[in-house]
Fold this protein.
Amino acid sequence: MKKNYWIIAIFSALVMMSCASTKQQTAKITTNNTALSFSRNGGSYLINLSSDASWSASTDAQWLDISKTNGEAGEHEIVISATENWSTSDRVGYIYFYVGPDILSVFISQEKAYISTIDQISIRALGDENTYADVKSNFPWEVISCPDWMEASVGEGIFDGHVRMKVQNNRDSVSRSGMVTLGKEGLSLKADILVTQEGKYFAVNNEALALESKGGTMQVTINTNDAWDITLKDPAQWLEISDISGEETRTVNFTAGDNPSVNTRSTTANIAPGDLELTL
């Protein structure tokens, strides 16, 4: 009889241990989201957590924060927050939830900071009041520096937008270049635009015109990337000039009517800024 008693006792103990083990294995923890993605600006996400037993939470990412790191069985709302990411690399981390020996992980990702624009731009010698370059960025940026022969300012938008450049007239025959740097003071993250401006050149294809007594039209090509104007040293009502001022290369017509006099008539046209004299 005693032998049967011991057999029953051992069997009961095994059944109880099996039940306890089964109960331990069925304890679980779940969330409504196991992957979160943050913008560079950071922010917060609310997730719902459900657990069959007491639980705890932790993370090894210093840029992440968990509003609640432990609790009892039941339903819970957990706020997961991320700080701003000012690095040039995307970053990842995990939130770990523990129930006994079981672990539930939530994957966290956050985009890097970036700013980009065109690499270089060319400006004519005369300069330009409104030169724009598009800027792509996910943080508020500013103009950090630019050459002293131009002005640069933030155009529309402080994230995606454009930079406006006002470039002065280059009065030298030598081209010049400088860097416009965009970014944020105190950060290494920057974008550079190489601005190149051509130097001045000026020439005419003919420095002396000769017309027959019956008059006619002759042409002079002004080859330049500068602004120019034509003035006569001596008044000449008998001479018509198609253009007395302009910008960059152009062909100018000099037209004279019939000369009724037996005397030769002439005048000198000064073409600036090259200070070239054209004798007619």
In short: The first strand starts at residue 29 and ends at 31. The helical segments are 2-26.
